[in-house]
Design a protein that fits this description.
By secondary structure, the protein is an alpha/beta fold. Helix content is 46%, strand content 15%. The protein binds NADPH dihydro-nicotinamide-adenine-dinucleotide phosphate and 2-hydroxyethylsulfonic acid. The site of 2-hydroxyethylsulfonic acid has 7 residues, from loops.
């Protein structure tokens, strides 16, 4: 083959690879599961829109991952519905078509019996885990409906499947995520949109630090004495889920560490 034809072929292949890249928007990409997911997808030929509130972390991650792919960051609080809609609308044309939405932002706030629960903690969990997920979805679903394609992955929890002592409102918020995921799958079925839930057990992230309001020692104790899931374990599974052929939808997945049998049964070494 003449040299110039070879060069042309190289350009064609590179171009084709680029136009075939899917764009993934990940909420809660500044830490834990969301960050690890951004890292694995960026290294596997996806364009990534990173979302979170902490701008410094977004900038740092954007810098790190730009070595692998196109990255765009959006800083917003998922509770602010006006800002959620405006920020997503503001995406540059290169990133505006979202093929995969990963609704991951969320946390537990507090671990108290219902009679002692803090109203602000309850608001935070319902507003972030449930309403925030809905606002982000509302901003993106119309374009998927129009294109008749797309993939939505909602990060629930084992707390979406069972209730444990003092987990009351967090478990309620995640049960809502589970129900909303099923509802999305039903309503978006006529449009050929994939919808699934991934439900991890205990994952060693900043989750417990947030739950215990910065009490690092109490947070570390949650993961002591056994081999907990790491954020990368869930990210790896998310990569598997998004990379299945389009006719395959992994609808509902519960993932625990081997040491965990349920929310309250964890085989710990003697401490
Ligand atoms: P982290 O605390 O490490 O990460 C939480 C992420 O959510 C951060 O990036 C944070 O970003 C973002 N976030 C929190 N509140 C808001 C908000 N108001 N607006 C925008 N973003 C927000 O925890 P995980 O990675 O563990 O948690 C990720 C998801 O996984 C959550 O939905 C959690 O419920 C779920 N999960 C976690 C498990 C665990 O054991 N760790 C197990 C099962 C499910 P920023 O603060 O920058 O806004
Ligand atoms: C996080 C897992 O068991 O702390 O959703 O609720 S748990």
């Amino acid at each position: 083959m003449p040299f110039l034809d070879k060069v042309e072929l190289c350009f064609y292949v590179l171009n084709k690879k680029n136009t075939m890249k899917k764009t993934v928007l990940i909420t809660g990409a500044t830490s834990g599961i969301g960050k690890a997911t951004a890292q694995i997808l960026a290294k596997n030929n996806y364009k990534v829109v990173l979302c979170g509130r902490r701008k410094d972390r977004l900038e740092e991650l954007e810098k790190e991952l730009s070595a692998f792919t196109e990255i765009h960051s959006l800083a917003f609080d998922v509770r602010d519905k006006k800002d959620v809609l405006e920020q997503i609308k503001s995406l540059p044309s290169d990133f505006a078509t979202i093929d995969v939405l990963i609704n991951n932002a969320g946390n537990a706030h507090g671990l108290d019996p219902i009679q002692n629960g803090d109203l602000d903690d309850w608001d935070a969990m319902i507003d972030i885990n449930v309403k925030g997920l809905l606002y982000v979805s509302k901003a993106i679903i119309p374009q998927m409906v129009e294109r008749q394609s797309g993939h939505i992955i909602n990060i629930g929890s084992t707390a979406a499947k069972e209730v444990y002592p003092n987990g009351n409102v967090y478990c309620g918020s995640k049960h809502a995520v589970d129900a909303i995921t099923a509802g999305m799958r039903i309503d978006l079925n006529p449009f050929g949109i994939r919808v699934g839930g991934i439900h991890p057990g205990l994952v060693a992230t900043e989750f417990s630090e947030v739950r215990f309001k910065g009490d690092v020692e109490r947070a570390a104790n949650v993961y002591k004495g056994f081999d907990p899931l790491q954020a990368e374990d869930i990210a790896d599974i998310i990569h598997f889920v998004v990379s299945r052929p389009y006719h395959v939808n992994i609808a509902d997945l519960v993932v625990m560490s081997t040491a965990q049998a349920s929310s309250t049964i964890v085989k710990k070494n003697n401490l």
